[in-house]
Structures are given as C-alpha cells and as structure tokens.
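Hey, can you fold this one?
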Amino acid sequence: MSFTKKDRIIQSKSGRTFPELSPSMLSEALAQALKEEFGALASSVKTVARLTNSNERAVRNWFDGKNSPSADNLVILMRHSDQILRTVLELADRRDLVLAVGLSGLRAQLVDVLEAIDGAQSG
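Sure. Predicted structure:
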C-alpha cells in the first residue's frame, strides 16, 4: 500500500523540534513549586487539598513528586499560585510569558503599597 499525497505530514516542515519532558521532570518541578509556594508542612497539604477539592493522599504525592496533578487540578493550582504558573510556563519554554506574570505580580504589590500609603495618610 502506498501513501497518498493527502496523508498527514508527520514531520514538521520548519524543522522545529520539541524538547523532551518526562513525567518525572514534570512531577519534580511541580513538587518544588508547591513547596516554595505553600511550604512543606502538613497544613500545606490540607490547604492545597481544599483548594483543589482533592484527596490529601493524592496531594501529598504531588508534594513528594511521586505524581502530578491532573489537568483540571493543575489549572486550579495555576489560578492560586504564581509559582506554579511560572513553573508550567518555564516547562513549556514560554519565558516571555514568565516575564509577563512577574510584571503582573509586581504591579499588584505596587497597588497594595499605594493603598497602604493612602490609608496611612488619611488615618
């Protein structure tokens, strides 16, 4: 059987290659980000379990780097954690977006400082 010209092209014409990302690299990177953002305490596991509505045992495995969160739990974590968001973007090789997330966080901190100054002046 011969291939037709309408068959799907398997290789990229641009010659672009994609970096390898193993499941263990993902789970280890997310475990490190979880520990940096939430700490490595038992209460941190409970906090993340409540955020994601997940079993504490599953969340403990995320913190230990044994497993990775499912896609829906990862999205929830990215909503609540800039560190998780940065880690995922770095693993996706989207460093331009990592910078944007950092600037957004910096802007939020500046707004908080300005509100504190305004509150101190009026009070």
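Residues 23-92 form one domain. Let me know if you want another pass with a different chain boundary.
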